[in-house]
Amino acid sequence: MKNYYIIDFDSTFTQVEALDELARISLENHPDREKIYQQIEDYTNLAMEGKISFRESLAGRVQLLNANKEHLNKLVTHLKKKVSRSFDRNKEFFKKNTDTAWIVSGGFKEFITPVVTPYYIKKENIYANTFKFDSNGNIIGYDENNPLSDEGGKVKLLQELQIDGRIFGIGDGYSDFQLKESGLIEKFFAFTENIARKSVTDKADHITPSFDEFLYVNDLPRAISYPKNRILCLLVGDVPAIAVHILKRDGFSVRVKETFEEKYTKDVGLLLLGNGVSVDDEQLARADKLKTIGYLGDIKGKISKRICSEKGIVVFDDKKNKNRNAEFIPRRMADFINNGDTAMSRNFPNLTLPKLTQAHRLLHIHQNVPGIMAQINQVYAENDINIISQFLMTKGDIGYAVTDIHTAYDKNMLKQLKQIDKTIKFRILYK
Q: Any idea where the ACT domain is (predicted)?
């Protein structure tokens, strides 16, 4: 059976609620705009939480808009810049699933279609409401015969379509959960990259903080090898808010703590420490998932660089206490996770890599001993791998080999690379 992917638009495919944004455009010069904005937002939230009917919410919002076709054109331009980050980086998924990735929304085709069609979503696979206009192009209502304008509209639509296949629903609102409740879909994934509604997440089969997470758990083609929302980023001590913002915006699962609590030791992937914070050697040695440490100050005497190097942990610090260290250090950490860059590292060879395009990047951290590159390349040769580019740098006892290869290969090759003697850490990046 084919898999079909039923995807919501507002606060799912895009970061925002489109009608709320349209109101901000159409009512920009209205004297009571703030009051009306709030009324429209309230209608949205009450419906998304299942507290009022969708039709009541839709009628209330459209009546308050005072919008026309010119406003819609401005809205489309705005929405194209507000596509959710994890959807935007996974265009390739939509290209490969153009027949079965559908948009089903209580929003309106007039603004949905121009936003989603650049992502290879076919117009005939976009199901949404349509506006009614007067002769001057003003919005005066909507097609009330469209099932999506009514309460339980998504359920009614799927009942009419009678799709022959396994259906997965992705959305943030109550109307998306109703599909699961109806028994029409296989699983419902509550999408929380932009907003998390407890009334929805409590009932979901799976909470997906990003589209990467959805693709990962269903073993579908995706842009990145491991969802960043699954990577624990621990911030300890006096860490400015800008650093928290940078790492959260990049999609990591961020925890802010006063101390490096023992319960996080085995799971932490990134560790950003405020100036003066120390980590004892024993705890550091047990942090097996830790990939990078950022230190907002001079790391000397606070953390063992020797243990970090032995475990393949890339360290970034700021011993000169520059004014922008709170932005610079977390960005270096993110660049290492996202692209493999080690530029400005304290303990690793410094390497700035080209951006990945249509390739997989294999990062092999190893002890700098004779013959190890020969072993690595022997594995590639035995597996008939077409190498696009390869980079090698060493620093003291550490070797850092980065190889970009085409995406078609036997996954058993990855095990072979990990098993090479003197390997410290191995990681793969998709792009």
A: 361-431
